[in-house]
Amino acid sequence: MAVKLYKPTSAGRRIHSVTDYSVLNKKHKTPKGLIVSKAKPAGRNNSGKITVRHQGGGAIRKSRIVDFSRADKKDIPAKVLTVEYDPTRTAFISLLSYKDGSKRFILTPQGLKVGDKVMYGENAEILPGNRLQLKNIPVGSFVHDIELIPGQGGKIARSAGNYALLQTVEAGYSLLKMPSGEIRKVRETCLATIGQLANQDWMNVRIGKAGRMRHMGWRPTVRGKVMNPVDHPHGGGEGHNPIGMKYPKTPWGKHALGVKTRLKKKYSNNFIIKRRSK
Q1: Contact 91, 108 (CB under 8 A)
Q2: What DSSP character marks residue 66?
Q3: Other CB atoms within 10 A of residue 68 CB
Q4: What percent of the chain has pLDDT over 70?
Q5: What domains sit in the chain, N to C, each tagged with a CATH number?
Q6: What is the pLDDT of residues 22-78, one digit of tens each?
Q7: Residue 151 phi/psi, 5° resolution?
Q8: What are phi and psi of 237, to 5 degrees?
Q9: What is the DSSP letter of 29?
Q10: In this prediction, what percent of the chain has a pLDDT beyond 90?
């Protein structure tokens, strides 16, 4: 995948870039059952209160239903019909047509092309897009869309360019090096898909202008130090001043940086061999 640049016809165009979508191949119409409309929460919870600031507006997007499990399609081969864009995620998706006639979306690994065959099963080949249990995958392989609990569906390494490294399999558990650098134990019966996800240059795209962020559903972020003291702990003062306190604070007076939010007695602490690097 690559990043596409434009001629500097305006100030916004001068510094912005986009993902090169020429690699996509969509010759088949999306089945109606695999595309749904979802209401935008705009950062609000079920009570209507804003729990995540700076969200709202944006272009209308329809979600594609992606199959993160494939558990009911064991040993049924499928053919890749499309490699297409999904407006609700960074990774590309592919439409599969199974031998039994059904169609499903999956995440597209790097190297998967239209016309390729993929399958989930114990005897599936070690090729991008095939899904197996971790105990059947060779050590040193790149995997994505990994289950944490058998049968739950993939939860780990689902964004563009992501993958986890299978380090070893022993005593009923596999050791995975996560994208964050964390080394974690996962049951060997959990499913994972072979390969690294496509569109790895997604992180190199430059937004370029404020209007593009609004289309993505992001509202403006105002710095606390330019506010009044009544609005933010960092506010007040004449001209450019430091925040005037030992550590940054949120608008509600809590620590803003370096705060540990993970529960000390969380059940999954026993599965973490090495925490992610700082």
Answers
A1: yes
A2: B
A3: 19
A4: 99
A5: 3-203 (2.40.50.140), 226-278 (4.10.950.10)
A6: 889 888 888 888 999 888 899 999 999 999 999 999 999 999 999 999 888 888 999
A7: 85, -5
A8: 95, 165
A9: P
A10: 67
For tokens 């993505």, what's the residue?
216
d(CA 20, CA 60): 22
For 198-237, letters b (16+ CB in 10 Å) and e give: bbbbbeebebbbeeebeeebbeeeeebbeeeeeebbbbee
DSSP assignment of 13-32, as one string? Answer: HHH-EEE-GGG-B--SPPPG
DSSP 276: P
Reported as half-sphere exposure (CB side, CA atoms, 13 A), residue 6 has a value of 16
DSSP state of 176: E
Model pLDDT for residues 194-217, shown as the tens digit of each residue: 999 999 999 999 999 999 999 999
Asked if residue 156 lies in contact with residue 164, where contact means CB atoms within 8 angstroms, the answer is: yes
User: Which 3 state secondary structure label does DSSP give 167?
Assistant: strand
Q: Where are the alpha helices (DSSP H) in the chain?
A: 11-15, 210-215
In whole angstroms, give the CA distance from residue 221 to residue 95: 37
Q: Can you read off the two tokens belonging to residue 150? A: 């058998």
- Here the tokens at position 208 are 């370029």
Phi, psi of 225 (to 5 degrees): -75, -10
pLDDT confidence of residue 278: 59
- Please state the φ and ψ torsions of residue 162, each to the nearest 5 degrees: -85, 155
Half-sphere exposure of 31 (CA within 13 A, CB side): 15
